[in-house]
Amino acid sequence: MVLHRSESYPIRGIAYLIRHPSLWRQIFCGLIIMILVSIIVSILLLIFAFPVQANCLSEYMSDWIAWIINFFLTLFEIGITVLVFSSLFLAYYMNIIFDAIWRQETMATNREEIQLTSSTRTACIKSFLILIIFRVILVVLTFPLNLIP
């Protein structure tokens, strides 16, 4: 395993993406989904939220300044909404891309390595279940001590 400088990872990732056209579909699908969400959120907020907020603001200030302030307020709301959606969507989409890269990189492995990975995974799951069972037993046994301050 070769370690590289941390600042080279983004460039290496982009180069990897360019060299593997099979990943382009996943990247473009995610990009198209985010563009569509941005457009839909912009249209909905500009149609429904913008006029109502402008009318509410015009009660406290002149109309022209209320519309200008509300325009920037609506842009801010659009940005926050897209940011929240992208943060939720990004974690899910990173898993999809990671799985695609994992499948692509492990296609060349032989059956012995796959069986070794499977047995390692099973052992890890069993260890994790034993740890959970031990924690539950420990909580049940120490519960009376936790009641007394």
TrEMBL record:
Primary location:
membrane
Ranges annotated as spanning the membrane? 27-52, 64-93, 128-148
Q: Per its UniProt record, what InterPro entries does this chain match? A: CysZ/EI24 (IPR059112), Spore_wall_assembly (IPR052786)
Keywords noted in UniProt = Membrane, Transmembrane, Transmembrane helix
Pfam families, alphabetized: EI24 (PF07264)
What is the membrane topology here?
Multi-pass membrane protein
Cell compartment(s), UniProt: Membrane
| Name of the molecule in the record | Uncharacterized protein
